[in-house]
Write a structure and sequence with these properties.
Largest sheet: 4 strands, mixed
CATH architecture of the largest domain: Sandwich
Oligomer: single chain
CATH topology of the largest domain: Immunoglobulin-like
């Protein structure tokens, strides 16, 4: 966003006892940067038809930042994730009209347990350098288990259960009789 020019002439009247209304001859000297908070001066002056300068009037302008940053999610606001696989969030970007990129100021609260099906919320929040808060943004992560658990048995003594998380091997012990050779 570009700085807007500060031109405020309300309350400024330029009149001359001989020339009358000199508003068209108003000269404004302006140092206001509407993108940078601070104190600025604006000077108003005019010249009449005889070359006489008016008494300069100085106005002090205070630019303040009251707008919070804006959070934009990277990716969708709702994610469907397969249970049993690692979840890594794609994050968010944060920008502020005065500070620019304030991605380092982002806070994420909430936890996704990718091993347990359910709905989880990640809440993104941020503040700018003047402690103006952004509106929080929420990502919904739906952990689902679409894998059907199944078992594979090769023999009574060897069986595997397969699913997104569990692999189980059960083996029965067979009695061993030593061979004597007699």
């Amino acid at each position: 966003m570009k700085p807007e020019a500060y031109i405020r002439i309300s309350g400024v009247v330029v009149e001359d006892s001989l020339d009358g209304d000199l508003s068209s001859n108003l000269v404004i000297t302006n140092t206001v940067n509407t993108m940078t908070p601070g104190s600025y001066t604006v000077k108003y002056n005019a010249i009449d038809s005889h070359g006489n300068l008016a008494n300069e009037v100085v106005r002090t302008v205070f630019v303040v930042d009251t707008s919070g940053p804006v959070i934009s999610l990277i990716g969708d606001g709702t994610i469907v994730h397969e249970a049993g696989t690692e979840y890594t969030d794609s994050g968010a970007q944060v920008s502020d009209i005065v500070d620019g990129d304030v991605g380092g100021a982002i806070t994420v609260t909430g936890v996704v347990d990718a091993m347990v099906p359910g709905e989880y919320q990640l809440v993104f929040s941020a503040k700018d350098s003047r402690d103006n808060e952004a509106n929080t943004v929420v990502r919904l992560v739906q952990v689902v288990d679409t894998t059907k658990r199944r078992s594979l048995c090769l023999a009574k003594w060897q069986c595997w259960l397969r699913g997104p998380v569990l692999i189980l091997s059960i083996r029965a012990r067979m009695p061993v009789t030593p061979w004597t050779g007699i």
